[in-house]
Specification:
The chain is of the alpha+beta class. The protein is built from two helices and two strands, in the order H-E-H-E. A two-stranded parallel ribbon has the order 1-2.
Length: 110
């Protein structure tokens, strides 16, 4: 295993990116019928991250989540989970708020 960074405990290695599409997106005819809530989406994505992290073996990096808008809200749900099986190094979000424009989703609060 590569030497650990003194601050994070993560292996020193070139950063890699894994881009995941949240369930139901991009919307096609079949996926528009299934739009899971944030918590369920977060669980699905956290499991996909866990699978990818396990496949990397000894070279496993620590994970930093990055999300914007609904992806950011999902990343917050993932980061808040008490059941992660992989090391979360950090979280960066943008475009996330707790108020939705009136009339969207039938409510003005998430």
């Amino acid at each position: 295993m590569p030497p650990a960074d003194d601050r994070s405990g993560c292996p020193k290695r070139r950063p890699e990116a894994l881009a995941l599409t949240r369930p139901g997106h991009p919307a096609d005819e079949q996926s528009t019928q299934w739009q899971p809530p944030f918590a369920e989406t977060a669980a699905i994505i956290a499991e996909a991250i866990a699978d990818a992290w396990q496949r990397l073996g000894e070279e496993r990096p620590c994970i930093a989540l990055l999300g914007h808008s609904i992806g950011g809200a999902t990343a917050v749900h993932i980061a808040a989970a008490q059941t992660l099986t992989w090391p979360l190094l950090g979280l960066t979000v943008s475009g996330v708020g707790d108020v939705i424009a009136p009339g969207v989703c039938g409510s003005s609060r998430i």
